């Protein structure tokens, strides 16, 4: 009897590791099945949850602006392209490729979970600043219109500063959201972000890219203001940046003359004010309804780079005041709903991202149009979604994708 009991116990002991492994395997399978079920329920919930109005408005406005921009690039660039011995479709075809790449960037920004975006946000400034610094490398960096702000890769020129604008927003949103309770502490919250902004703006000013320097600096100040930072450090930083920029420009008489030419457009219409003067003539030719798509005369060599920085003047000439008001209404909708998405967002990171993109669009649209109509200096900034340029279009569409991402996940 005793021998039988001992034999049964030894058999049980031999079977116990197998039974234990079987039990662990069953528990692991059950756990993975639960995780899969939770994940599928989450995906189903996100896909089926009714999206707010702002999501659809941003999507429709972005699509409309991109398509309208393609039409205006074709209209404004066909003459200069043909004059250079190329196909009239040359710039349009390149912009169409940029739009496809931008659509991919928009989709990726829209689908990326915000928590994963926050994980990589801290490393983005290193890539952005390094990319900007590559413009100083011989054989890689190249100058366009007097600014050495482009990186030449293959057959394409890339302007890293356009992507740095979005990087400053994402990085600032993550940093300032994490340090919300210490937002008044200069060392912990303000100094890290201001350092990145200052380096980016400094690289831009050395590149002679004054427009990007201004926008990068103002994006930094806007993010600090949105995060509730003390006004004194922001004020001092803005004053310091303005003084350094003024000193840099004052050292070069040519730069100073270009910056101040808007103060006397008529007197400088043969020199530094030529672009703005011709742009104003094109706008006045448009009247109420415009000359019609493709029928404008400003693009026949009168308005330099009409397909890029001064494309707004071609819009006004060929579509008239009504077309200009329609375009500005689209931008107003995009900016308004960007701030609406920010206000409806319940997490700090999403609020700062959406509001930051709204500030970025407001700044860039205002500075571009202000320069074209002669109430601001011409800084070389593009009109988002409309002007020819791959970096600007891709970065703008990625920003729109982030807005849609925040809009569909307000909680």
Plain-language structure description:
- The chain is mainly alpha-helical and 411 residues long.
- The chain has two domains: 56-89 and 258-411, no CATH class; 112-251.
- The protein contains 14 helices and three strands.
- The protein has a three-stranded antiparallel beta sheet with strand order 1-2-3, with no helix packed on it.
- β1 and β2 (147-153) form a beta hairpin.
- The longest helix has 47 residues, at 2-48.
- The chain is globular and about 80 Å long.
- The model is unreliable at 35-47 (pLDDT under 50).
Helix content: over 70%
How far do the termini sit from each other? 68 Å
Count of β-strands: 3
Cα shape? globular
How many domains? The number is 2
> Helices and strands, in N-to-C order?
HHHHHEEEHHHHHHHHH
Beta percentage is: under 5%
Biggest sheet descriptor:
3 strands, antiparallel
Radius of gyration: 27 Å
- Which spans have pLDDT < 50 for at least 5 consecutive residues? 35-47
Structural class: mainly alpha
Estimate the mean pLDDT confidence: 85
């Amino acid at each position: 009897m005793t021998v039988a009991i001992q034999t049964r116990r030894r058999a049980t002991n031999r079977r116990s590791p197998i039974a234990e492994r079987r039990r662990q395997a069953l528990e692991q399978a059950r756990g993975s099945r639960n995780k899969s079920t939770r994940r599928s329920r989450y995906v189903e919930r996100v896909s089926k949850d009714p999206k707010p109005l702002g999501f659809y408005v941003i999507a429709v406005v972005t699509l409309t602006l991109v398509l309208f921009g393609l039409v205006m690039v074709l209209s404004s660039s066909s003459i200069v392209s043909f004059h250079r011995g190329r196909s009239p479709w040359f710039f349009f075809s390149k912009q169409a490729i940029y739009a496809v790449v931008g659509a991919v960037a928009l989709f990726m920004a829209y689908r990326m979970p915000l928590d994963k975006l926050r994980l990589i946000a801290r490393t983005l400034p290193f890539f952005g600043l390094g990319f900007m610094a590559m413009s100083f490398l011989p054989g890689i960096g190249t100058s366009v219109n007097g600014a050495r702000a482009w990186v030449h890769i293959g057959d394409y020129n890339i302007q890293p500063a356009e992507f740095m604008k979005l990087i400053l927003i994402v990085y600032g949103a993550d940093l300032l959201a994490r340090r919300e309770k210490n937002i008044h502490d200069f060392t912990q919250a303000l100094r890290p972000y201001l350092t990145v902004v200052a380096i980016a703006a400094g690289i831009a000013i050395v590149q002679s890219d004054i427009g990007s320097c201004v926008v990068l600096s103002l994006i930094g100040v806007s993010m600090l203001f949105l995060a509730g930072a003390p006004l004194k450090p922001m004020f001092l930083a803005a004053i310091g940046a303005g003084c350094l920029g003024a000193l840099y420009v004052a050292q070069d008489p040519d730069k100073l003359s270009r910056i101040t030419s808007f103060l006397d457009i008529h007197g400088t219409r043969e020199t530094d004010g030529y672009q703005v003067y011709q742009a104003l003539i094109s706008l006045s030719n448009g009247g109420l309804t415009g000359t019609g798509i493709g029928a404008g005369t400003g693009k026949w060599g009168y308005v330099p780079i009409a397909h890029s920085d001064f494309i707004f003047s071609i819009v006004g000439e060929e579509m008239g005041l009504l077309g200009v008001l329609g375009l500005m209404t689209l931008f107003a909708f995009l900016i308004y709903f960007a701030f609406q998405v920010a206000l409806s967002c319940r997490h700090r990171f999403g609020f700062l991202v959406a509001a930051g993109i709204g500030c970025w669009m407001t700044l860039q649209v205002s500075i571009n149009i202000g320069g074209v109509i002669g109430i601001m200096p011409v800084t070389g900034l593009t009109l988002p979604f409309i002007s020819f340029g791959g970096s600007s279009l891709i970065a703008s569409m990625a920003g729109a994708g982030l807005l849609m991402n925040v809009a569909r996940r307000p909680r």
